[in-house]
Amino acid sequence: MGEIIQFDKEAPAALADDATLDRLQALVAEDLREVNRVILDYMQSDVALIPKLAGHIIASGGKRLRPILTLAVARMCGYSGARHVSLAACIEFIHTATLLHDDVIDESDLRRGKATANAVWGNKPSVLVGDFLFSRAFQLSVTDGSLKVLGILANTSAVLAEGEVMQLLTSNDTDTSEAAYLEVITAKTATLFAAACQLGGIVAERPANEEEGLKNYGLNLGIAYQLVDDALDYSAREAELGKSIGDDFREGKITLPVVLSFRRGGEEEREFWRRTMEEGEQTEDDFERAVVLLERHGAIRDSLERARHYGDVARDSLAIFPDCAEKQGLLEVIDFCIRRAH
Amino acid sequence: MGEIIQFDKEAPAALADDATLDRLQALVAEDLREVNRVILDYMQSDVALIPKLAGHIIASGGKRLRPILTLAVARMCGYSGARHVSLAACIEFIHTATLLHDDVIDESDLRRGKATANAVWGNKPSVLVGDFLFSRAFQLSVTDGSLKVLGILANTSAVLAEGEVMQLLTSNDTDTSEAAYLEVITAKTATLFAAACQLGGIVAERPANEEEGLKNYGLNLGIAYQLVDDALDYSAREAELGKSIGDDFREGKITLPVVLSFRRGGEEEREFWRRTMEEGEQTEDDFERAVVLLERHGAIRDSLERARHYGDVARDSLAIFPDCAEKQGLLEVIDFCIRRAH
Questions:
Q1: Whether A174 contacts A277, CB under 8 Å
Q2: How many Cα atoms are found within 13 Å in the side-chain-facing hemisphere of B151?
Q3: Which residues in chain B touch residue A135, judged by CB atoms under 8 angstroms apart?
Q4: pTM
Q5: Which residue on chain A is closest to B125 by alpha carbon?
Q6: Computed from CA positions of residues A219, A225, A228, A234, in that sequence, does the dihedral angle turn out positive or negative?
Q7: Domain extent at residue B172
Q8: In this complex, is the C-beta atom of A104 within 8 Å of any C-beta atom belonging to chain B?
Q9: Is residue B1 part of a domain?
Q10: I need a labelling partner for A59 at 20 to 30 A (CA). Which of A9, A121, A142, A296 fits?
């Protein structure tokens, strides 16, 4: 065994915003400890750098939202076995591999001063450890032994990669439409949320209509989550809480607030967006100016309104399930995803 | 359908060295066309950059040695179905994904003037398209439907990633031992050769001892192949043929010729290797000097001798199989791998 990382010793919830995730976390706490055990187990390797680097990103990986979804859905569906634990770990490994690969930078990015996890070890170790974790997810799902599950994970991985490439292509492109943006976040984020939830229903052997409902819950929750995440990157509230903001702006990543502001603004404003986000020429005051423009056009407000829409669809996707503590928790996750912006 | 790439229209074999691969290529020609069809089919995506970039690397991918092994082994084992075709494509996708990720560079590499495929599109697209191809391999193997096959591919992928990380750790480290070098090339190269051959036996449902023989044939062939490849990077013969040499030296990649020369040389020579390969401080004449030192210590000669040893073991691994055209071809591949150095 390489690095010892204590996952159980969670940082105390500092933000009141996290409150709405509490119920679900408490409901699956025992399962989640098992997930963390599987993660620790499967990230081991005789090549010491692998658990070291993997542990760094997995430990800092936050709330374990995706595996919690798998666990909670399986419980809501009355599942009492153990398959959901390894599949939840599998989902987290795929997520972590994506994070590592998402952090890979090109020389051009260095100019814009991006500092990510891979700044510590460099691009190549991040890529290779990502590959390793992805392979581990593959191994875990083979151990589970269901071809249906394997097919879903394989398809999900392909769509994730497509989404990441699409995001790259819309990067620095102020012409990006709302539809294109939506396609990107659906592929790169929501698909994994959808799989996380669908797998919970599959292990419980629920009928097709329920499985579809769970998948749609995850898909729409994922879209809402990413919409809010992208809005938060321009949020003064986030800055107050000491979180980093402005990353998307500095990287020229075109998210919905920018899509809306660019299209609603006049030619002078569009010139501003082109200079800062397409050509990457930014001065110190530009981020502040960007926030003023977003405010002027209600771009953050409307991004959150869009998120609320997907949250509503997610909520209705669960309507066919009878009330229970887990269902209540899953509904509260929708609020958690949306309310953290306020 | 995106890019149209003609795989069938092969470049004429320019080198006499390629001759010993001819028999096997001819024997599996029809199957190989099918493999290329599957590859073309599965590398498609609505995201146009994906088939474009993937096609670039797959088309330039050379001899299709690994998928040819799967096809030929399956035929040698009397298999008459079609599973070997999609598994051969699967192996080629994994190989291609590895190539793309292997080309990822860090800022530090730029100094040394490495120019790779990803120089055209940048690190990030290479990583993401690699992920996509890896996911496609995953999808293909799920379609095949055998958990045993899936398990082998998942384990192989994990070991490949470990091998790549190990290689990174031995990079620039002149203390690297022959044993450590061997461990690296076994993991990063030979494991995939082994899987390629083993899968051919599995689809033909051969007994365990034959499956093991095939795996060992692939493993030892792969080690021999990489040993020769690493020797060729210092070969004047290669330079005569217009191939690029000296890449490993410039990148500080520690291969067996350097391991042997470093250990056999005196302190002054070791200082040379440390300066050039550890600290990466190289002048124009240094590569020539390196070749002189390798020559002095018989490092290339002995690297090829080691390769011959593994070639012999590969040959004996096939001894339990009755003679047939495919077996003859597989034995000739060993010669092909070793003789291309002369």
A1: yes
A2: 8
A3: 154, 157-158, 160-161
A4: 0.91
A5: A165
A6: negative
A7: 16-339
A8: yes
A9: no
A10: A142
